[in-house]
């Protein structure tokens, strides 16, 4: 896709990978619709970009995908790409894990991502073009103790991405996922010191490393669909 003047919707845009992706796609000439809960952060980010607007909201709100599509159409007249990025990571042992927090994670990482993808897939299919990037993880391809539900949520994203890619093949709509290894973001901010130690790595990636990967998927010519992109720190061995 030639990204100049095309329109991308980015969930989880208020920090980390979503924020870096907003800057990367802005630099590529895209117009952006941003979403997350933190209205102040979205406001500041949108004001620092060339053509960006935002809708603050809870990503698991079933009405949000439709509102984002309407915002893209009313502000920019079109929608071309969805970056399905919002996510959280709740971990813990069988004894200690907060089951309610786990279930809320599944609503955010899985249910909300599915709702978002279907609303945009329908629109893209009607118009015969578009691309959906889902944020998976290395945890979507590998398993780790104490991360059962997070790994499960990202394995679900992997399977969902591939099924949608197959269903939409030939429609002009592409689907792919990005699988980051450890990236230094706020994702780990509520973890205990012991939990942080489990994923400690000397030189994690920065959010911009993943943003470049997302741009790479979107920039492919229409005869190419990159379905998966694993991006890890060069020194990550597990
Ligand atoms: N960091 C890593 O090592 C890593 C590795 C592999 C995959 N990933 C994936 O990358 C994606 C982005 O994570 P990140 O590392 O950039 O983390 P982050 O800095 O914590 O960003 C998460 C984003 O999601 C939004 N969000 C969280 N809960 C939300 C909710 N209930 N409603 C609306 N928005 C919500 C947050 O915004 P608000 O708080 O403002 O709502 C924020 O913008 C996630 O899907 C994550 O699983 C990250």
UniProtKB/TrEMBL annotation:
Record's keyword terms, sorted: Oxidoreductase
Domain (Ketoreductase) ranges: 6-181
Key word Oxidoreductase present: yes
Matches recorded under Gene3D superfamilies: NAD(P)-binding Rossmann-like Domain (3.40.50.720)
An MF annotation (GO) of this entry: oxidoreductase activity, acting on the CH-OH group of donors, NAD or NADP as acceptor
UniProt keyword Oxidoreductase present: yes
Domain of life, per lineage: Bacteria
Recorded family membership: Belongs to the short-chain dehydrogenases/reductases (SDR) family.
Protein name: SDR family NAD(P)-dependent oxidoreductase
Organism listed in the record: Brasilonema sennae CENA114
């Amino acid at each position: 896709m030639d990204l100049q003047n095309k329109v991308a919707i980015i969930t989880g845009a208020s920090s980390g990978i979503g924020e870096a992706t907003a800057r990367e796609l802005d630099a590529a000439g895209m117009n952006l619709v941003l979403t997350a809960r933190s209205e102040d952060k979205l406001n500041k980010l949108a004001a620092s970009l060339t053509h960006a607007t935002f809708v603050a909201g809870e990503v698991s709100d079933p009405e949000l995908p439709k509102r984002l599509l309407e915002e893209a159409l009313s502000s920019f007249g079109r929608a071309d790409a969805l970056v399905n990025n919002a996510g959280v990571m709740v971990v813990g042992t069988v004894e200690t894990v907060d089951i309610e927090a786990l279930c809320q994670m599944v609503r955010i990482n899985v249910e909300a991502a599915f709702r978002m993808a279907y609303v945009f897939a329908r629109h893209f299919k009607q118009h015969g073009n578009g691309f959906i990037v889902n944020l998976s993880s290395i945890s979507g391809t590998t398993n780790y103790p104490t991360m059962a539900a997070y790994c499960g949520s990202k394995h679900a994203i992997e399977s969902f991405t591939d099924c949608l890619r197959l269903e939409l093949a030939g429609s002009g709509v592409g689907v792919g996922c990005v699988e980051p290894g450890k990236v230094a973001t706020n994702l780990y901010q509520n973890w205990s010191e012991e939990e942080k130690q489990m994923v400690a790595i000397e030189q994690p990636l920065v959010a911009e490393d993943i943003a470049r990967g997302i741009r790479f998927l979107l920039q492919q010519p229409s005869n190419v669909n990159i379905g998966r992109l694993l991006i890890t720190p060069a020194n990550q061995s597990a």
